[in-house]
Amino acid sequence: MIKDYKIDPRPKLVIVLLLSTLALIYNEISMLFIILLISLSVSLLIKSDVAVVFFKLKKVFILMVFIAIAQSMFIKMGQPILKFHNIVIITDYGIRSALQFILRISIIVVSATIITTSTSREIVQGLVQWKCPYEIAFMVSIAIRFLPILKEEMSDMIIAIQLRGIDIKKVKLIKKIKIYKYIMLPIVTNSILKARELSLAMEMRGFRAYSTRTSYMVLKMNRLDYLIIASSIVVTILFILIKAM
Amino acid sequence: MNAVELNKLNFKYKSVQKRTLENVNLIVNQGEILAICGVSGSGKSTLCNCICGLIPNVYEGEYSGEVKIFGQDISLMSRAEIATNIGIIFQNPSTQLFSPTIEDELAFGPENLCVDRNEIAMRIDEILKIINMEEYRYENPNSLSGGQQQLIAIASVLMLNPKIIICDEIMSWIDEGGKEIIKNLLMNLKKQGKTIIIVEHDIENLKIADRVINI
């Protein structure tokens, strides 16, 4: 049924909001794992590209694991698991905190992929029809639009540096940090210039010419959309009740 | 009536010492294609920004003189009036397009001006036919070539049905095929009575102009 039906962006926003809330409420690893499984199932059911997103965020996940290990090493509560002479390196509590962190971030990332099945325009329209001011909703979509531009700027700068004979992959970490420090200024400057051009183009197309605007796209929620919202809220309340008990 | 009239226009950017525009007087006739040429930094884009009201509304600096659009002082015109009278297309098409589909991109301008939904639909059909890109209606603008993106940027401006169209070096990023399509489109717009101001370096692209001025 879901396969053939295009779900309105609003139930998706509700699902993401509820899943992220649950991820923050729960501390138990088993429950966080269940919430992650639910997020994955919903994400796959809605046909979002979870695998692609995970692949794109590969480096972030490595960083996440690194942060988790660091967290585990610096939290000294609980029973020590790994000791070096008298210095406690890892405790069971630290490992649990690291796992909680990884699971929480994974839930948020997986649930966020649900939104990616709608276009930014649909999300903006969904928010607008929920009485969110157009300017704020549009600002969010423009911010998303700018992420690839920043990435493009970054890769252009790195190519420019490599063309000058510096192989950034072979450079030592401290020098690498220095290089990144140098390229940040042109990246930010170019991004600001591009943002300015975009704002001029918007201005010349009458953005905020009037206090209201018409909308060519009109979203209409169906029974299934309402059912998804209602069932998501019910499931979340159940989870909160379980937590309270 | 003249489409554009500049009287004793002066402008100096806040950050520079010298005036970019000094005592500029210019008349653009209705329905003509005027080409503006000049070396880099001579103030071509600044002039365009003055004609479309971005100076002094957006860019800050020392401004004096008069810009009249169909006899009306631009400083007295509302944002909606400016948008329906003048459209400007910039050099880089990718920074002018921000919607996930071409349809959304084209609808953006008329939506801002509170145009009725049915009217927007009609305009989209019409404009896509003019630029011969009907089959791309639901495509993401980022997936198009530079020439196609520039055509969409032009189309999104045409959606507001402006009487004056300013093209600020719009062909500099485009291949020969794309340039021909854009030149043909500009010629057709001229036949429809639009006033076109083009800023150009390439002599080949100036052939469509009725008049060329150097600044």
TrEMBL record, chain A:
InterPro entries: ABC/ECF_trnsptr_transmembrane. It comes from Sedimentibacter acidaminivorans. The keyword Membrane applies. It holds the Pfam family CbiQ. Its main location: membrane. It is found in: Membrane. Keywords: Membrane, Transmembrane, Transmembrane helix. The chain crosses the membrane at residues 12-40, 224-242. It is a multi-pass membrane protein. This is Energy-coupling factor transport system permease protein.
Automatic annotation (TrEMBL), chain B:
Residues 4-215 form the ABC transporter domain. The keyword Translocase applies. Its main location: membrane. Transmembrane segments: none annotated. Keywords: ATP-binding, Cell membrane, Hydrolase, Membrane, Nucleotide-binding, Translocase, Transport. It is found in: Cell membrane. It is a peripheral membrane protein. It comes from the Bacteria. Pfam families: ABC_tran. Coiled coil: none annotated. InterPro entries: AAA+_ATPase (IPR003593), ABC_transporter-like_ATP-bd (IPR003439), ABC_transporter-like_CS (IPR017871), ABC_transpr_CbiO/EcfA_su (IPR015856), ECF_ABC_transporter_ATP-bd (IPR050095), P-loop_NTPase (IPR027417). Belongs to the ABC transporter superfamily. PANTHER family: ENERGY-COUPLING FACTOR TRANSPORTER ATP-BINDING PROTEIN ECFA1 (PTHR43553:SF24), HEAVY METAL TRANSPORTER (PTHR43553). This is Energy-coupling factor transport system ATP-binding protein. It comes from Sedimentibacter acidaminivorans.
